[in-house]
Amino acid sequence: MKSKHDVRREIRLKRESLTEEEKVRRSLLVAARVLELLEKEEQVYVYIDLEKEAGTRDLITRLWENGIRVAAPRVEGKELRFYEIRSEEELTAGFHGIPEPKLGCMEAAWPQAPVIVPGVAFDPKGGRTGYGGGYYDRFLQREPEHRIIGYCFQFQIYEEGLEMESHDRIMDVVVTDERIYEKRGNSYESGRNRSESESSFKSSGKYGTE
Q: How far apart are the C-alpha atoms of 132 and 8, rounded to whole Å?
């Protein structure tokens, strides 16, 4: 089994070859799949994507349009905290230039809300390799009640399995542009492929609605 360092390097090289057009196309497919899982939710915690990550802006827009409240993360020291955002205007450049909720946004206290989690790589059994900072690990240890949804492109699924440590949280669901991997009891099931034609999403190109 490859080390986390080797996996991060391998997947990052694959992501670097991704064009902006391809990122948008694939991100729309991931978002369409995740939205189906969130239809009955009232609140959702969602990360704001970095360049080359599976994009969340169209997902966030659709959640708002469907009346679902959204909270985004802000880095505070070594901790990650989520604050409700209602529009793009409530975001500002934060840690490493990543958009974060502005000061003045209300901290979310939604223990039953699912959390959409980024990562460098995932595996078919819900394993996750992050960026090495441990922010989501600490957040999930602090708030373990949440349902955790990994959000990524299919090429980020590491079929061989990932090295896991005792503090690593197994995802409840992992969603890609091609499949859904879902935990059922003590096992994981992989859903069917989804063709591009099945997605009704179109990119809005920004957060919020016109």
A: 9
List C-alpha distances in Å: 98 to 3, 25, 28, 65, 92: 27, 21, 20, 24, 8
| C-beta separation of 179 from 195 below 8 A | no
SS3 65: helix
Q: How far apart are CA 27 and CA 136, in angstroms?
A: 21
What is the length of the chain? 210
Q: Which of 23, 19, 45 is nearest to 34 (CA)?
A: 45
For the chain, domain boundaries: 4-190
CATH architecture of structural domain 4-190:
3-Layer(aba) Sandwich (3.40)
168, 162 contact by CB (below 8 A): no
| Token pair recorded at residue 184 | 């059922």
Query: Tens place of pLDDT for every residue, the chain, 210 residues?
Result: 788 888 888 888 888 888 999 999 999 999 999 999 999 999 999 999 988 899 999 999 999 999 999 999 999 999 999 999 999 999 999 988 889 999 999 999 999 999 999 999 999 999 999 888 899 999 999 999 999 999 999 999 988 888 888 788 899 999 999 999 998 766 667 765 544 434 444 444 444 433
What is the edge-to-edge ordering of all strands in the sheet holding 69-76? 79-85, 69-76, 43-46, 115-117, 148-151, 173-175, 180-184, 187-190
Q: Return the bridge partners of 129, or none.
A: 121
